[in-house]
Specification:
Elements lengths: L2 E6 L8 E4 L11 E6 L2 E12 L12 E2 L7 H14 L4 H7 L1 H4 L6 E6 L9 H12 L4 H8 L3 H10 L2 E6 L19 H15 L4 E7 L5 H15 L4 E5 L3 H15 L4 E3 L5 H12 L5 E4 L11 E7 L7 E2 L5 E2 H12 L2 E6 L4 H8 L4 E5 L10 E6 L13 H12 L3 E5 L8 E4 L16 E3 L4 E3 L6 E3 L13 E4 L3 H11 L5 E4 L7 H12 L5 E4 L12 E6 L13 H13 L10 E6 L5 H8 L2 H15 L5 E10 L2 H13 L7 E14 L2 E11 L4 H10 L8 E6 L6
Parallel strand pairs: 8-15, 8-16, 9-11, 9-12, 10-11, 12-15, 17-27, 18-25, 18-26, 24-25, 26-27
Antiparallel strand pairs: 1-2, 1-4, 3-4, 3-5, 6-7, 13-14, 19-23, 20-21, 21-22, 28-30, 28-31, 29-30
Helix pairs in contact: 1-2, 1-11, 4-5, 5-6, 7-8, 9-15, 16-17
Bound molecules: adenosine-5'-diphosphate.
């Protein structure tokens, strides 16, 4: 009897499709296969096999097995769990899970080697080539260079058979970590935490710990010990360390190399496709034992995942809110459970969700008391902008510029923090008041001076800055309103012409290499003043940095969403935590119009617990996360009337359930994007409600017309 294979395709289809298994293929669950869909052949993954013929119509047959390791059972279960949780098609997370398997393989490299055959004619140039080739295999071009001869000489020897070409796989073997190396000597508080983590890893089962310690307390040092313990416990064990930013990866990779003597496998958007393919294969075969990566690394095909570390677990970039929507920190706990692995969440400013789990004992709570060694937390001063405002058209107040002057004088470094890219967030016409907005989208265009363009940060639209107002035609009437990092950089240069000033934002630092260059320059003291967005606010150690100036501490509070205060606290605590590591005391100045705000007061007092207690109390009253659940549904479409009608219909069929409240539909704050109107529903549920199931039931009751899209976001981070 033949078998039926159930194949999941990496597309937004509701379920896996059945195919016939051709004779002799002998599939196993997890195999990657080529399966026909309409006229196309697609890569899919076998998620089930059963005996039987396929009902009335004969099934299409699988075309063949693909040359890639199978997806392990844990990875398949994880994909299915994630899809159910996110109320999305399982093909969506599958697409993320097999992205590496679909990347092209690196071409083998050509190297030349001597064959032992002597050339018919010996010349001094030929002798040099043969000598160099005997010393080590290399590419023909490198050989010519090493011997100091032209490429023609090498070619002649190849033609005569004195040299031969061999194809080799490009290097980057994922070498096993050296577990005999010792870590640094830990202080008492670090030792206690490391012991607790080792014990947890030693239990060999699913467990979660929060590693909670101020910036610079040595969290990385401590979790490296957990990594060592997991790897030592089992020669097949694999470890995943997740980081929120590629800018951070390089520094962490250096520390892994120091600790284990080998380079861990890297996984993030900046890794070239052929390398991605090799990492994917090496993870699937168990060869890569340490992976350092961004959120999507959680979907890699680990054979034997024993430990997951989520560094900076509070970071918002773990939430992916386009395409397949997921929160990698939360899903890391799910993956840990599926794999029976230990999970370590590390942060100086943990999310309220994680703190709540620690408070209630669901997670172990390991606290690192102080900064390592002599380093102290910086003194924090609030600069009241109502009392000491900057001059008109400037952004740095007199107290901040005075502190910058002193810092410069002392040969130390300043970080000016402003979480806003570009030169100015708004451009308006002084003659007619027109604001420059993005076409078909209700967002302002941001002026970028480096590129001379006005850019929509939402859609990517950009245009050269016009000479005349497009509305009234007035010449040179367009004024730049408010500051972005480029404008603060301009001001810093003007105030301190002798200082070396640099900008760190995603517009100026576009890849990991550039990020490393800037981080190194800062660490080496080649920069006096660094103006940075959040890209540089976390994780880095700059020993000469003693002053952090927060240009607009109120910025994050204006959003008014669920996590506005929490996020502001986290971001500013991280940013101010950059100052004064090692032996130099640091200080941070926060420019604010609301010094009395609870967030500012908590920052000033460096009293995280007070902030958390106040915020938790508020959330508990409102039954908001972590005391309740939230979901969002965004419906969008080009025709406002049709959208309105559809949203109303949708509201009517919302399921009734105890402990669930549905708000909306309401116009989304961002009500127009790329010509599509947007409306939102907000759903609040008690903690014991299966919100995903509720949303799935609702989703099944609606049939949106072609032009209307429905996006479901479980546990939304964006409320726009
Ligand atoms: P965190 O991850 O908590 O911000 P890190 O692990 O990056 O802290 O440590 C901060 C700095 O202190 C790093 O430069 C680190 O090398 C150093 N450090 C921490 N603990 C030790 C230790 N036990 N011995 C030597 N240096 C340490």
């Amino acid at each position: 009897m033949s078998r039926i294979a159930s194949v999941l395709l990496p597309m937004p289809l509701p379920e896996a499709f059945d195919y016939a298994e051709p004779d002799g293929l002998e599939l196993v669950v997890g195999d990657q296969v080529a399966a026909p869909l309409g006229p196309r052949l697609l890569r899919g993954v076998v998620v089930g096999l059963r005996e039987g013929a396929g009902g009335n119509r004969p099934l299409k047959a699988i075309e063949g097995k693909l040359d890639s390791p199978p997806l392990p059972p844990g990875a398949i279960e994880f994909v299915q769990w994630a899809a159910r949780y996110s109320v999305d098609a399982p093909g969506q997370p599958l697409a993320i899970a097999i992205r590496g398997a679909r990347a092209p393989k690196a071409k083998p490299e050509r190297i030349v080697e001597p064959t032992g055959v002597l050339p018919a004619r010996a010349t001094p140039a030929r002798a040099k080539v043969l000598e160099a080739a005997a010393a080590g295999a290399m590419s023909p071009a490198d050989l010519a260079r090493a011997a100091g001869v032209s490429a023609g000489v090498v070619k002649g020897l190849l033609d005569e058979g004195a040299l031969a070409v061999r194809l080799v796989e490009p290097d980057g073997a994922f070498e096993p970590p050296d577990l005999a190396r010792a870590g640094r000597e830990l202080n008492a508080s670090q030792s206690a935490a490391a012991d607790a983590l080792r014990a947890m890893v030693g239990e060999g089962c699913f467990n979660v710990a929060l590693l909670d310690g101020v910036t610079g307390s040595g969290k990385t040092e401590v979790y490296l010990e957990a990594v060592a313990a997991a790897l030592a416990r089992d020669p097949q064990a694999q470890v995943l360390v997740m980081l929120p930013e590629i800018a951070l990866t390089q520094a962490v990779i250096a520390r892994f190399m120091e600790r284990f003597g080998v380079k861990p496998a890297e996984w993030h958007s900046d890794v070239a496709p052929p390398m991605r393919r090799r990492v994917w294969d090496a993870v699937a075969t168990g060869q890569a034992r340490i992976v350092v990566g961004a959120r999507s690394a959680l979907f890699l095909p680990f054979q034997k995942l024993s430990l997951i570390v989520v560094d900076e677990e509070h970071d918002g970039s773990y939430k992916q809110d386009e395409g397949f929507i997921y929160q990698a920190r939360d899903l890391s706990v799910v993956r840990g459970k599926i794999e029976n692995a230990a999970v370590v969440l590390a942060s100086a400013t943990p999310s309220l969700e994680t703190l709540r789990n620690a408070e209630t004992g669901r997670y172990r709570w390991l606290r690192l008391a102080a900064r390592h060694g002599t380093a102290r937390l910086p003194d924090i001063t609030l600069v009241d902008l109502k009392e000491t405002p900057p001059e008109a058209g400037r952004w740095l107040s007199p107290p901040l510029t005075a502190a910058m002057a002193q810092t410069l004088e002392a040969g130390e470094q300043t970080l000016l923090f402003l979480n806003r890219r570009g030169y100015a967030p708004l451009v308006l016409c002084k003659a007619c008041g027109e604001r420059m907005t993005s076409p078909d989208t209700d967002s302002w265009l941001v002026e970028h001076r480096y590129s001379g363009r006005l850019v929509c940060h939402l859609t990517g639209f950009s245009m050269p800055k016009p000479e005349r107002c497009p509305h009234c035609g007035a010449k040179e009437s367009l004024a730049s309103i408010g500051p972005g990092v480029e404008r603060v950089e301009e001001e810093a240069r003007m105030l301190f012409p002798e200082a070396r000033v640099a900008v760190f934002s995603s517009d100026t630092v576009w890849d990991a290499k550039e990020a490393r260059r800037l981080v190194d320059a800062m660490a080496e003291g080649e920069i006096d003043i660094l103006v940075a967005t959040q890209a540089a606010a976390k994780g880095h150690n700059f020993p000469r940095l003693t002053l952090v100036g927060v240009v607009d501490a109120d910025l994050g509070l204006r959003g008014g969403d669920l996590r506005a205060a929490e996020r502001t606290y986290q971001l500013l605590a991280q940013a101010t935590g950059r100052a004064g590591r090692r032996d130099r005391p640091g200080r941070a100045l926060l420019q604010t119009y609301a010094p009395e705000h609870a967030v500012m007061q908590a920052l000033k007092a460096q009293d995280r617990d007070a902030f958390v207690a106040a915020e938790m109390a508020e959330r508990e009253i409102m039954k908001l996360p972590p005391f309740g659940r939230l979901g969002a549904i965004v419906v969008s479409g080009p025709d406002p009337q049709a959208l309105e009608a559809f949203a109303r219909e949708m509201a009517k069929v919302a399921p009734n359930a105890e402990g669930v409240e549905v708000y909306g539909p309401a116009d989304a704050p961002l009500s127009l994007v790329r010509g599509r109107r947007r409306k939102r529903f907000l759903i609040r549920a008690d903690r014991n409600v299966d919100l995903s199931a509720y949303l799935a039931t609702w989703r099944a009751r609606i049939r949106p017309p072609g032009a209307i899209r429905v996006a479901i976001d479980v546990d939304p981070y964006s409320f726009l």
